[in-house]
């Protein structure tokens, strides 16, 4: 007679445990969402506030939006030109990173050769280098080669972190492709390049797309090298935003307006490709 109440008690305990787990996970997810979206919200609202509302204490949550800061950015700066420069540099650096990094990742994933571990370690550790450490050497090299304030200087520098990022992400994608597929293609008469381009490349395309997206975003948002290597002609959008910081103060309104114009295209692009982004990041994680 006591079996039924005991079973109900066990089911109730399991239900409460599952409910607590879901509530805890939901609370953590909500905190993460707020932590990521709060800076974006603050930037956009600051761009739409008047100067008085921006420095009001306590902060003004309900206000009349104004586009005065966007007008100032349009009239005083060269945001449109800097956005075009960012697009040229980020797109070129991304394409070259994929063209070089994808074959390198395939070789590291498929073949054994002397020095492979050292090469892999060297590629990955390039991501550990702080930009401020190599900014001065890059400046001196670009000056001697007369590449200062040119797109090609930024493109070549961005390859130093774009290629390692592509290699790092794509190696696991190629490893997830069964070797039997390569062997079957070889038996059918395909050479090494045909096996790579016709077999492995299409199968690993989700990971390659993800690496290209992340490389593009990293190049688009980069500030340090662009600040050191550009002046006016090749100035990128992050540098344009930083120009509103002067020795007399920080013009928060125009700076946040420029930041909104920089973030908006990338944000829309990330939302459009979010499904492919998750798919590519998880591919090869579980065999």
Helix content: over 70%
Total E-strand runs:
2
Please name the fourth-level CATH homologous superfamily of the largest domain: MetI-like
Report the biggest beta sheet as strand number plus sense, adding barrel if it closes: 2 strands, antiparallel
Number of helices: 14
From the alpha-carbon coordinates, what is the Rg to the nearest angstrom? 25 Å
Could you say what the CATH topology of the largest domain is called? MetI-like fold
| CATH architecture level-2 label of the largest domain | Orthogonal Bundle
Structural class: mainly alpha
Strand content: under 5%
Low-pLDDT residue intervals, each spanning 5 or more residues:
none
Instruction: Give me the strand/helix succession.
Output: HHHHHHHHHHHHEEHH
Provide the domain count: 2
CATH class of the largest domain: Mainly Alpha
Q: Strand order, biggest sheet?
A: 1-2
Overall shape: flat
Report the span from N to C terminus: 48 Å
Which characteristics define this entry?
mainly alpha, 2 domains, MetI-like fold, 287 residues, two-stranded antiparallel ribbon
């Amino acid at each position: 007679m006591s079996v039924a109440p005991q079973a109900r008690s066990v089911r109730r305990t399991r239900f409460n445990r599952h409910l607590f787990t879901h509530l805890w996970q939901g609370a953590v997810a909500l905190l993460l969402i707020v932590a990521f979206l709060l800076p974006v919200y603050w930037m956009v609202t600051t761009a739409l506030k008047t100067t008085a509302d921006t420095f009001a204490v306590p902060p003004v949550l309900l206000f009349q939006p104004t586009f005065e800061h966007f007008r100032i950015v349009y009239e005083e700066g060269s945001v449109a030109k800097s956005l075009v420069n960012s697009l040229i540099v980020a797109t070129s650096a991304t394409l070259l990173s994929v063209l070089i990094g994808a074959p390198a990742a395939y070789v590291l994933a498929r073949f054994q050769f002397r020095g492979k571990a050292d090469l892999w370690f060297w590629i990955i550790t390039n991501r550990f280098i702080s930009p401020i450490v190599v900014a001065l050497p890059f400046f001196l090299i670009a000056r001697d080669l007369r590449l200062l304030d040119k797109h090609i200087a930024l493109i070549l520098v961005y390859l130093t972190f774009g290629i390692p990022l592509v290699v790092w992400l794509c190696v696991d994608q190629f490893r997830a492709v069964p070797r039997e597929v390569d062997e079957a293609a070889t038996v059918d008469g395909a050479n090494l390049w045909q096996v790579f381009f016709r077999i492995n490349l299409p199968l690993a395309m989700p990971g390659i797309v993800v690496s290209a997206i992340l490389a593009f975003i990293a190049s688009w948002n980069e500030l340090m090298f662009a600040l050191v290597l550009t002046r006016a002609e090749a100035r990128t959008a992050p540098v344009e935003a930083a120009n509103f910081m002067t020795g007399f103060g920080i013009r928060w309104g125009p700076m946040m307006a420029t930041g909104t114009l920089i973030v908006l295209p990338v944000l829309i692009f990330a939302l459009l490709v979010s499904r492919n982004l998750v798919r590519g990041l998880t591919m090869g994680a579980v065999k």
